[in-house]
Amino acid sequence: METSIFKLKKLVPKAALLMAVAAGTVLQGCSKTEGGATGTSEAVSSDAAQAVYVAPGKHDELYSFLSGGFNGQVSVYGLPSGRLLKIIPVFTQHGENGYGYSEESKAMLQTSHGFVPWDDLHHPKLSRTDGQTDGRWLFVNGNNTPRVARIDLKTFETVEIMELPNSAGNHCSPYPTNNNEYVIAGTRFSVPLDMKGGTNDVSLDKYEEEFRGSISFIKVDPEKGDMDLDFQILVPGFDYDLANGGKGPSEDWVFFTTYNSEKAGTLKEVGASQNDRDYLAAVNWKLAAKYAKEGKAREMPANYYHNKIDKDSHIAKSTVKKKVRYLLPEECPGMMYLLPAPKSPHGIDVDPSGEFMVVSGKLASAIPVFSFAKMQDAIKNKQFDGEKNGIPVLKYESVLKGEVKEPGLGPLHTEFDGKGNAYTSMFVSSEIVKWKLKDLNVVDRMPVYYSVGHLMIPGGDTKEPHGKYLVAMNKITKDRYLPTGPELAHSAQLIDISGEKMKMLLDFPTVAEPHYAQAIIASKVAPNSTKFYKLDENKHPHAVKKEADVSVTREGKNKVRVKMTAIRSHMTPDNIEGVQVGDTVYFHVTNLEQDWDVPHGFAVMGANNAETLIMPGATQTLTWVPKKAGVFPFYCTDFCSALHQEMQGYIRVSPKGSNVPIKFSTGKKKQNIPGVASTK
Amino acid sequence: MKAYQKMLMIVASLSLGLLFVFPMWKIYLKAPQYPEGLELHIWVNKLGGSSESVLQNFNILNHYIGMKPIHAASFAELQFMPYIVIAFMVTGVLVGLVGKRKLVLGWTGLLMLAGAAGIVDFYLWLVNFGTNLDPMAAIKVPGMTYIPPLLGNKQLLNFEALSLPALGSLGIFMAITIAGLSYIFSLRNQTINPVHEKGKVAVA
C-alpha cells in the first residue's frame, strides 16, 4: 500500500496523459508490468537516447570492465551503449567455455586450500603507463580466498592468478602504481598469523593481542606482466578497506582506509563503529621497496599458489611458493603514517593532480579532503598525535585541506573528471553529488536508483580522466526493470558529466553484483585484440595439426587418450571403439580453423563435466569417465557452420576387460576434406 | 636500333620481374559472413591471399559443394612458370643488347603467346574446379556449377566472386607494350635513314 502511494507521488509531475494510461491499466485490473508501468524515473532529457545510441554495426567509444562481485567474473560492456560484450571467467568455473573444468585451466583455481572454484571479485584495475591506463592488462581481486588475477586484454582471458599468504578478505586490492611497479593488496579481515604461513588456533577473545593485517606488494614484469609477491608489510589488526595510489607529487605513496581501529572481534557492526575516528594509512611504497631491498625484510615460511597459463600451450601450471618476505612498520621509520579519518571510512580516492586525498566516511556527515603538501609538512614538523603500534599518527587538523559540508548521506567513493570536479556516490541518500575540488562546494546532485555503491569515470582514478561519462553501480534494483522473481539484476546508470549539470542517459542491467569498474578508450585495446591462435605456434603436447595425425591410444590399464581435430563440419575421428567402463578418457581436441570467430565446442553425453570451447588454433581437453557400457554421442556445441548439426560422432564403451580393440575412423572412404593445417 | 630503343627493350624484359614481387591475379570473395572478405592471390610461383591461412578457408567453404581442395602442389605450372619468366627476361635483355629489330618483334610475339596461353590455362583450371564436383557433396544445387569468373564478378550462392588481374600481370602488360614501342620506334629509324637501309647497313 505504502509503495503504491509512493509511486503515485512520484508520478504526479509526469504528464497527465501518462497518469491516465496508468490509471486505465489499474482500472482494467491488469498487472502493472503488462500495462507498461515504469519504475521510479526522473525526467530524462530528450536527447538521451541519441547520446547512447550506437547504430547497428558501429562500435562503442569505450570498453568498460565491471566486476561481477559474487560471480567471480568480469563483465565487459561497451559505453555509452551499455551493451554486454563478454563475460570473462576469473575465479569461478565457467561451464560455458570449460574454464576451470578443462584439464588445461583447472590449475588456475588451485590454492593452498585445494581447488577453490569460486570467489568474490570486487575491484578491477587497468594496468598503467605514466599514471594512465595503457590497455595491456586488467588486475582483479578475489576477496574470499585471497587472490589477485591478471587478465590479458589481447585475448580477454585470465592468464595468471596469485594467491596471497597472511591475508584474509582480500578486499583492499589490487592497486597498481603509476607504472605497474607494484600491484598492492591489503587485507580486510585481520587474522592471528602463526608466522609460518597459516593462522594460529587461538581463542577468538584474543583479537586485540593476536590478530594482524598485511599489505602485499606484488611486482609486475614490465614487459610480460607476470606477477611475483615481493614482500608484505605486517600492519596493526584493523580492517583495511580500500586503497588508491598517489600521482604526481604523491606518486611514491599509497593510501589505505581502515576501520575497526577498535579491534573488535565480534559484532563489528557495533564494535567497529565506536571510535569517532579511524585511520587513513599512508605508505611510502618506494621507501618500503628500498627497505625490503636493503635487508630490512625478514623471511617466514609460507604456502601459497601461483598459477599461470603458458601462452603457447594454453596449459595452466601451478607453482607452490614456500616463503615470503615481510617488513614491520615499527622497524622502518618514515615508511608508514596514520591520518585520523572520520568514523569507519570506506573509499579513498586521490585527485588527478595527486595533491588531494578524499576520504568518504560512510557514517560521517562530511567528506574530509586531505592535502598531500600538508601531510609532507606535518611529517617534517613532527605534528604527531601519538602513535599506534609504533606507527606515528598525524594530527587531523595538520593534514586537512577542508571538508565537503552536507554532501549527502553515506558517502562511499569519489572519482574525478580532470576539470576540477569530484563526484561522490551516496549510498544512503541514493545520489551522485558533484563538488568542486577548489572550494569543496557542492554544485550539483543527481538521484540514482537505488543506493549507489561505486561510481566510475573512465580514467577517473588516473592522472588524465576521460571526463565525459560516469557510471553509477547501484546495489538495489527493485522496480527498475521488469520483475524476474526474488532475484533481480543489479542496475547500472550512465550519466553525462560533460556539462555543468549532470544528465541521466541510460539504465542497464548488469551481471551478478558489480562493485568497482574501469573503462578505457576502445582504441587503446581493440587494435591489439587477437583474432585466432596460430596453429603453427600451438605447443600443446597433445595437439594434432592435421587429420592424418589423429590417434586413440590406451596408456596403461585404464587411461585412453584421444587426440582429435575439429574443423567445419566434422570431427576426426568421429567413430571411436575400444573404450571400457571405468577408463579415464582424455579428449584432446584441436581446432584446426585459422579464421576469425570459428570456435568449435565439444561435449559428450553423461560427462560429469562441462563442455569445452576451443578457439581456432588451440587445443583443449575434456575428461570423461564412462560409467556404463553402450554408445555415447559427442558433438560440436557452437553453431559453427551450415552443417554444424552434422558435426557429431559416437564413442562405443564396452564392459571392463572386454576384447573390443581400439579403433577409430572418420568417413567410410577417403573424401575431400580440407583437414590441412596451413597453406605452407 | 638506337641506344634508347635498346634501353626500352631491356626495360621491357626487366619489367617481367614484377611477377616475382606481386601476384598475377586476385580472386575476391564476399559474403554476409565475411565482411572482411577473402582474397586468393595467384602468383607466378605460389598461391597466397589476404591472410596466411586463406587457402584453408577457401577449401573449407568449397568442400561443402564438393569442389576439390586447392593446394599449391596440384599446379605443375607454379613449378615451371618461374623458369619461363626468367628465360623471357634473360633473352629479352640479350635481344636488347644485340639490338635486332626482328628479334624484338619475335620476343614480343612469343611473350604475347605465352600470356595468352597462361590465361587459357587459368580458365581451364577454373572450369575444372567449378564443374568437377564430388557427387557426395553436402550441398548439391541441380544444374549449378561454380566456375569462378575469369574477369569481373559473378554470384556463386552466398558468395560474390570478383576476379581481376593484379600488379604482376601489369609486368607482362608493360613488357609487351614497351617492347612493342621499342619495335615501332625502331621502324622510324628506317624511314628517316633510307640510305642506310638501301646500303644494307645494319639497322641501328
TrEMBL record, chain A:
* One Pfam family per UniProt: nos_propeller
Q: Name where it's found.
A: Cell envelope
Q: What Enzyme Commission number(s) does the record list for this chain?
A: 1.7.2.4
Q: Where are the transmembrane segments?
A: none
Looking up InterPro entries in the UniProt record yields: Copper_CuA, Cupredoxin, N2O_reductase_N, N2OR_C, Nitrous_oxide_Rdtase_Sec-dep, Nos_propeller, NosZ/Cyto_c_oxidase_sub2, WD40/YVTN_repeat-like_dom_sf
| A GO term, aspect molecular function | nitrous-oxide reductase activity
The keyword Zinc appears for this protein: no
Q: Does the keyword Phosphoprotein apply?
A: no
| Primary residence | other
- Which PROSITE patterns does the UniProt record give? COX2, PROKAR_LIPOPROTEIN
Q: Which UniProt keywords apply?
A: Copper, Metal-binding, Oxidoreductase
Q: Which PANTHER family match?
A: CYTOCHROME C OXIDASE SUBUNIT II, NITROUS-OXIDE REDUCTASE
Q: What is the name of this protein?
A: Sec-dependent nitrous-oxide reductase
TrEMBL record, chain B:
Full protein name: Copper chaperone NosL
Q: Which UniProt keywords apply?
A: Membrane, Transmembrane, Transmembrane helix
Its transmembrane ranges are 7-28, 80-98, 105-126, 166-185
Q: Which organism is it from?
A: Pontibacter populi
